[in-house]
Every structure is written in structure tokens, then in C-alpha cells.
Amino acid sequence: MGDDFEVLKQAQTRMDATVADAGSKLGTVRTGRASLAILDGIVVDYYGTPTPLNQVAKLSIPEPTLIVAQPFDPSSVSAIEKAVMASDLGLNPSNDGKLVRIPIPPLTEDRRKQLVKKVRAMGEDAKTAIRQIRRDANDEIKKQEKDSAISEDDAHRYLDEMQKVTDRHTGQIDELCKNKETELMEIS
Questions:
Q1: Which of 115, 39, 112, 117 minimizes the C-alpha distance to 80?
Q2: Which of 25, 82, 121, 123 is the most exposed place for a label (fewest CB within 10 A)?
Q3: DSSP-derived secondary structure for 80-121
Q4: Which domain holds residue 140?
């Protein structure tokens, strides 16, 4: 009787990971407000070694529409500026020899709409992954029922429970996407 619960536990763990992954991916979508998460994918060429931006500079948000990168090594200031410019975030950094200032420009209406589409696509991808996890778990439950490892009643109960877990996780994805869309449509 222990194995069948394991199927639900594993599916739940995989779904939790999918929701967490979707949350961090959504965090990298730029809004009109400064957020350090949007810089997560930026890699700086630090003495020939590709290094994440947050490992070569202290990042801060002194005001809602500005990010400041303070290099740990002042000689890397132009490498940091180049890396931010090379990203596909559409940011225009400047440096004063000591700091890199990254102003976060307000989003145009078109850009907001593009980003909302991107957010919805990310949400759909995450929900598809969750449904695939449910499918795998359901197949395993049916297989155990067929192999007489669990009773028909237990199989039905686990399939119902699996659906509840799936609904809860797709709801969490919808909530994350809705919050991000609201953030995108806010005009600062």
C-alpha cells in the first residue's frame, strides 16, 4: 500500500518544482519597475571567464526605476556595462568609472502587450508540464491497479487526489501569471 502514495508524493514534488521554476522564470520578465531578478541571466566576461553579474558586482535598487551595479573589482566596470547592453532586455546602462547605472525605462504599450503574451506562454508551458506529470502519475496508478498492487477503490481515490493536486498547482501558475500581468500593465 506504500507505493501508491509514493506516486502522489513524487508527482506533488515535481509539480512544486514546476511552479517554483515558473515563478523564477516570470521574475526575469522586465516590467517598468526595477527588479534584480531581470538581471539573473546576465553573464559578464570577467578576465575571460563568463561570470554571473551578481558575482562580480553588488546590485541595488536606490529608486524604483534604477538598478546600480557596484563592481567588486573597479576594473570590470566596462565589462559589466557591455554585458548589460548585450542582453536582450533593451536596457541602456552608463558608467562613471566606479558604478554602472541601469535605468529601467517605462514600457511602451506595445512592449507591455508583447510581455503579457510572453507571460501567458510561460504559464501555458508550466501548465503543460504539470499536466504531463499528472498523466505520468495516472498511468502509474492504473498500472498498479492492473497489476493488483492496489484495489480499484484505491486507484479511483488516488486518481481523484491526483486531479486535486493538479488543479491546485495549475491554480498557482495562473495566480503567478495574473500577478505578473498586473505588474506589467501598471503604469508607473
A1: 39
A2: 121
A3: HHHHHHHSTT----EE-SS-EEEE-PPPPHHHHHHHHHHHHH
A4: 2-28+108-185
Assign 152 a pLDDT band (cuts: 50, 70, 90): very high
Instruction: Supply 102's cell numbers.
Output: 541601469
**pTM score over 0.85:** no
Contacts of 172 (CB under 8 A, 6+ apart): 19
Separation of first and last alpha carbons in the chain: 56
> DSSP code of 34?
-
CATH of the domain at 120: 1.10.132.20
Taking alpha carbons only, the member of 76, 115, 65, 119 closest to residue 99 is 76
* Residue listed under C-alpha cell 538598478: 67
From the list 119, 118, 117, the residue with the least C-alpha distance to 179 is 119
Residues 18 and 40 in one domain: no
